């Protein structure tokens, strides 16, 4: 079934491995991710943006994730990604999400604290994990767009203060990655992650996990980034497989044919990310 991500991430951090949080955009992709995780005996987090909640429905998503995680016997956290709207957070928690992100990173520090506290008041007593962001992660995720000039790294002392003031169990500090596929290589500020890790005990979250080189992901995980978010690479992998199907066989309209190709591409991507963070065999 759906489990709390708090013990999952605390355990991962202690064990020096990561948990991948895959963004899913369709019901099929929920099954694909969980089938791959099951084959690798890996715990996993599924996450949806607000756009996906609006498209599929929070209660529908919860029911499908619950059914699929029970079918595959995979411990699965269900997380609401990058939410700026308290009402949607309430709706997700009511539906059965085990984790929510309040993204108030576009606001000044004090307002970010206030909005995060408001969500903590709602979620914490229900055992729902809360993730907050400090600094600004660049790139595009759903309708949140942050240009390269506006991207801003988290300040370590502010991370400490923020965790003390809000009590958040999970923190996403911007450390140089961006949402989407990079033009060049990401410029990850490892010494900053190290400093933050010395000041706060909570598991940290790596946003913008797509296209981050393997050794960089491993280093981030070793420095306490226990949750690694992957969206773009997964959806691109299976969308590309479907496109390829229609290039090669434009007359073949059998969904079982093109969705099988999509599934294989999705599962291969999931497996490679799970191997990267070292969560294989942790179930
Ligand atoms: P990518 O699209 O770069 O994988 O980023 C995912 C993410 O951070 C979701 O919150
Ligand atoms: Zn993100
Ligand atoms: Na990225």
TrEMBL record:
One of its GO terms (biological process) is carbohydrate metabolic process. Zn(2+) 2 binds at residues 103, 133. One of its GO terms (molecular function) is zinc ion binding. InterPro entries: Aldolase_TIM, Class_II_FBP_aldolase, FBA_II. The keyword Ligase does not apply. Dihydroxyacetone phosphate binds at residues 180, 208-210, 229-232. It comes from the Bacteria. The active site is at 81 (proton donor). Keywords: Metal-binding, Zinc. Binds 2 Zn(2+) ions per subunit. One is catalytic and the other provides a structural contribution. SUPFAM superfamilies: Aldolase. Its cofactor is Zn(2+). Zn(2+) 1 binds at residues 82, 179, 207. The keyword Methyltransferase does not apply. NCBIfam families: cbbA (TIGR00167). This is Class II fructose-bisphosphate aldolase. It comes from Virgibacillus salarius.
